[in-house]
Amino acid sequence: MTEAIQNVANPQIEVKDLNLWYGDKQALKNVSIQIPKNSVTAFIGPSGCGKSTFIRCLNRMNDLIKSCRIEGEVSIEGKDIYGPGVDVVDLRKQVGMVFQKPNPFPMSIYDNIAYGPRIHGVNKKDLEGVVEHALRSAALWDEISDRIRSPAFSLSGGQQQRLCIARTMAVKPEIILFDEPCSALDPISTAKIEELIMNLKKDYTIVIVTHNMQQAARISDHTAFFLMGELIEFGKTRQIFENPGEKSTEDYITGRFG
Amino acid sequence: MFSRNYREKTIESVLFAVSALTVVILFLICLFLFRDGLTLFEDVPFLSFVTGKFWYPTSVNAQFGLLPLFLGSLIVTAGAILFSVPLGIASAVFISELASPKVADFLKPFVEILAGVPSVVYGFFGLVVLVPFIRETFNLPTGQTALTGSIMLGVMALPTIISISEDAISSVPGSLKQGSLALGATRWQTIYKVTVPAALSGISAAVMLGMGRAIGETMTVMMVTGNTAIIPSFPGGILDPVRTMTATIALEMGEVPQGSDHFHALFAVGSVLFIVTFLINLLADAIKKKYRFKVD
After folding, report:
1. Is B185's CB within 8 Å of A119's CB?
2. Does residue A200 lie in a domain region?
3. Which of B212, B209, B222 lies closest to B69, judged by CA?
4. CA distances from B20 to A245, B29, B48, B217 (A)
5. In Å, how far is B99's CA from the nearest CA of chain A?
6. What is the dihedral of CA B125, B129, B130, B133, to 10 degrees?
7. CB contact under 8 A, A115 and B184
8. Residue B295 forms contact with A (CB below 8 Å)
């Protein structure tokens, strides 16, 4: 492993010796990483390498899987998120997530965005402002401001995904996790989302899982390469792509497997 | 080659004939029901049947008023739905969302067994257990009331409502639930604000079908509702005896002279029942088709 792991400035997420099993099958092996604040960190690696599993440890989405068992330490802002007395609801408010396929709720665009703020008790009179702000932040406002009450399913796939990003932002998280957010989208929609993600790092810490190495190279500041449940290499994106320290990293990014 | 083709064709036509048979049977039922039902209106004006307030089929001045029977069916069915919908949806939510797979697998067969109990057994249970209970609880002269019928029919509609709602709730894509949980919603908020609303079309269809079952049920209601053909008052009438359309047909058909006005009146009542259940099923189907979940 490269020394970059030890030398990240201003880490917001710190993971130490994380091991994860689905039943008997170990999916993550001794993963340690420090993810810096207000930057974009990309996880790359072939299918089944554990990158999606890993990202789901950061907002405890793996809790939903009964057979899943976790050992190790994950801290966000110095607080162990698997520690006793941690409220998963608060954690997920702090760490938002955007999924592989757009998953808007079967309600209006407005209600989709207002869903999170409503359950977290935002005032009725502030709600409209929150919704507009979230839609503007997701660069969606100008396209849809005139039909905010129409069903979310009436939007295109790319718009739906940006709606899901806006929905996540409306809860005011500090960290946003993206689990292959563009894999179901066309190139133009993908470009829009990439641009959006790069703009978002001013205000959020972004972690993105991607299949697409060019995407990682384009938008991320740091890149982590996973293989068979292990974190093989982590460092500045430029260094990983131009001068990888490990043979397997080089093989993967040059397309020799994956 | 020829013979193989021939065989394929034969099998196809036999299967077609069998499935066409259901349509033919339905058509024949309609035909006979309506033919005899409509004959009533040669002697009794249509309006006095539909808006008639009295059902005195055997008196000298026979009156064939549908209203007491129709309203009797309505009050019993409405009560059954009020009783079984919250219970049914709650059970469906529990089985599909909250129970561990083990518990769910344990519960499901019981729901199915509930559907398989013969209606006369329900009636017997109602007569022996529920009727005395209602009589004593509300201090009534008789426990055979609309309420008793409603509760029994509610129980009988439960399996339909539970199993169809459960199907609808389980078919809500997991991605929606995850989306909600990832926003910091609790499990209950997710169920209440995302999962159940997303399954609402299936749940409405379940309610309609449960209602169809309740409206058409005969034996149980006949045994526990007292069978008094009086227009039920509202809302106190829920504690009075009532007579439903189904019970009327079952009670009177055996003693009625063939071809009499009374005979035709029972067919007319049957036609009304047929139309109502047909419409309910049609509506349930339309709801299911229209809102079938589009994601995934």
Report:
1. yes
2. yes
3. B222
4. 72, 14, 38, 27
5. 13
6. 180
7. no
8. yes
A223 in Cβ contact with A229 (< 8 Å): no
Could you tell me if A116 lies within 8 Å of chain B, comparing CB atoms? yes
Residue B130: is its pLDDT beyond 50? yes
What is the least distance, in Å, from the CA of A98 to any CA of chain B?
Answer: 8
Q: Chain B contacts of A90, Cβ < 8 Å?
A: 184
Residue A206's nearest CA partner among A194, A188, A214 is A194
- At A227, list the tokens: 């293989």
Q: Give every residue of chain A whose pLDDT is below 70, as ranges.
A: 1-9, 258
Q: Decide if pLDDT at B295 tops 50.
A: no
pLDDT of residue B235: 76
Region of poorest pLDDT, from B3-7, B19-23, B238-242: B3-7
**A92 in B contact zone (CB under 8 Å):** yes
Q: How high is the ipTM of this complex?
A: 0.91
- What is the extent of the structural domain holding A67? 3-105+173-253
Q: Which fold has domain B46-290?
A: MetI-like fold (1.10.3720)
Asked if the structure places residue A76 within a domain, the reply is yes
CB contacts, 8 Å: A107 with chain B: 197
Q: In angstroms, what separates the C-alpha of A116 from chain B's closest C-alpha?
A: 6
Chain A residues close to B173, C-beta within 8 Å: 103
A20 touches chain B (CB under 8 A): no
Give the model's pLDDT for residue A258: 63
Nearest chain A CA: its distance from B54 CA (Å)? 49
Inside any domain, residue A196 = yes
Per-residue pLDDT reduced to its tens digit, B228-243: 998 988 777 889 999 9
Distance of alpha carbon B233 from alpha carbon A168, whole angstroms: 54
User: Which residue ranges make up each domain of chain B?
Assistant: 2-42, 46-290
Q: Is A120 contained in some domain?
A: no
Structural domains in chain A (count): 1
pLDDT at position B1 is 59
